[in-house]
Amino acid sequence: PKRHLSNRYNICLATQSSIDKLDSLSEVAQHWSGPISLAVYVADDDEFSLLQGFVMFLQRCYDSITSQVALHILVPKSLHPDNKY
Protein backbone atom coordinates (compact mmCIF):
# COMPACT_ATOMS: atom_id res chain seq x y z
CA PRO A 1 0.00 0.00 0.00
CA LYS A 2 2.72 2.54 0.83
CA ARG A 3 4.51 1.83 -2.43
CA HIS A 4 1.30 2.59 -4.32
CA LEU A 5 0.92 5.95 -2.55
CA SER A 6 4.52 6.99 -3.19
CA ASN A 7 4.10 6.15 -6.89
CA ARG A 8 0.83 8.06 -7.17
CA TYR A 9 1.76 11.25 -5.29
CA ASN A 10 4.88 13.37 -5.41
CA ILE A 11 5.84 13.09 -1.74
CA CYS A 12 9.02 12.48 0.22
CA LEU A 13 9.50 10.43 3.36
CA ALA A 14 11.56 12.44 5.86
CA THR A 15 12.92 10.66 8.90
CA GLN A 16 15.71 10.59 11.43
CA SER A 17 17.68 7.68 12.76
CA SER A 18 20.60 6.65 14.84
CA ILE A 19 23.35 4.36 13.65
CA ASP A 20 22.02 1.41 15.62
CA LYS A 21 18.66 1.60 13.83
CA LEU A 22 19.94 1.99 10.27
CA ASP A 23 19.45 -1.69 9.54
CA SER A 24 15.75 -0.95 8.98
CA LEU A 25 16.53 1.52 6.17
CA SER A 26 16.67 -1.19 3.52
CA GLU A 27 13.22 -2.43 4.54
CA VAL A 28 11.78 1.10 4.45
CA ALA A 29 13.25 1.69 0.98
CA GLN A 30 11.81 -1.63 -0.17
CA HIS A 31 8.28 -0.57 0.81
CA TRP A 32 8.55 3.10 -0.18
CA SER A 33 9.32 3.90 -3.81
CA GLY A 34 9.57 7.67 -3.42
CA PRO A 35 12.52 9.72 -2.20
CA ILE A 36 13.68 9.39 1.40
CA SER A 37 15.40 12.15 3.33
CA LEU A 38 17.31 10.66 6.26
CA ALA A 39 19.05 12.61 9.03
CA VAL A 40 21.55 10.77 11.22
CA TYR A 41 23.30 12.28 14.23
CA VAL A 42 26.87 11.17 14.89
CA ALA A 43 28.51 12.14 18.17
CA ASP A 44 32.16 11.51 17.34
CA ASP A 45 34.68 10.32 14.75
CA ASP A 46 34.13 6.66 15.65
CA GLU A 47 30.40 6.93 14.99
CA PHE A 48 31.10 8.73 11.72
CA SER A 49 33.38 5.88 10.62
CA LEU A 50 30.72 3.32 11.54
CA LEU A 51 28.07 5.28 9.65
CA GLN A 52 30.27 5.63 6.60
CA GLY A 53 31.04 1.91 6.49
CA PHE A 54 27.45 0.84 7.04
CA VAL A 55 26.08 3.21 4.39
CA MET A 56 28.64 1.91 1.90
CA PHE A 57 27.49 -1.63 2.71
CA LEU A 58 23.83 -0.68 2.24
CA GLN A 59 24.58 1.02 -1.08
CA ARG A 60 26.40 -2.07 -2.39
CA CYS A 61 23.64 -4.45 -1.30
CA TYR A 62 20.50 -2.39 -2.03
CA ASP A 63 20.16 -0.31 -5.20
CA SER A 64 17.21 1.54 -3.66
CA ILE A 65 19.48 3.09 -1.01
CA THR A 66 21.60 4.78 -3.66
CA SER A 67 18.69 5.87 -5.84
CA GLN A 68 16.19 6.94 -3.16
CA VAL A 69 17.98 8.10 -0.03
CA ALA A 70 19.42 11.55 0.64
CA LEU A 71 21.59 11.20 3.75
CA HIS A 72 22.09 14.21 6.02
CA ILE A 73 24.72 13.85 8.71
CA LEU A 74 24.46 15.96 11.83
CA VAL A 75 27.50 16.44 14.07
CA PRO A 76 28.13 18.46 17.22
CA LYS A 77 29.58 21.89 16.56
CA SER A 78 32.78 20.85 18.32
CA LEU A 79 33.38 18.16 15.67
CA HIS A 80 32.68 20.31 12.66
CA PRO A 81 35.94 21.94 11.56
CA ASP A 82 35.85 23.16 7.97
CA ASN A 83 36.06 20.34 5.44
CA LYS A 84 36.71 17.63 8.03
CA TYR A 85 34.27 15.29 6.33
From TrEMBL:
UniProt catalytic activity: 3-O-[beta-D-Xyl-(1->4)-Rib-ol-P-Rib-ol-P-3-beta-D-GalNAc-(1->3)-beta-D-GlcNAc-(1->4)-(O-6-P-alpha-D-Man)]-Thr-[protein] + UDP-alpha-D-glucuronate = 3-O-[beta-D-GlcA-(1->3)-beta-D-Xyl-(1->4)-Rib-ol-P-Rib-ol-P-3-beta-D-GalNAc-(1->3)-beta-D-GlcNAc-(1->4)-(O-6-P-alpha-D-Man)]-Thr-[protein] + UDP + H(+)
Superkingdom of origin: Eukaryota
Primary site of residence: Golgi
Its membrane topology: Single-pass type II membrane protein
The keyword Transferase appears for this protein: yes
Cofactor entry: Mn(2+)
Record's keyword terms, sorted: Glycoprotein, Glycosyltransferase, Golgi apparatus, Manganese, Membrane, Metal-binding, Signal-anchor, Transferase, Transmembrane, Transmembrane helix
Single GO cellular component term: Golgi membrane
Family to which this protein belongs: Belongs to the glycosyltransferase 49 family.
The protein's name in its UniProt record: Beta-1,4-glucuronyltransferase 1
Biological source species: Diaphorina citri
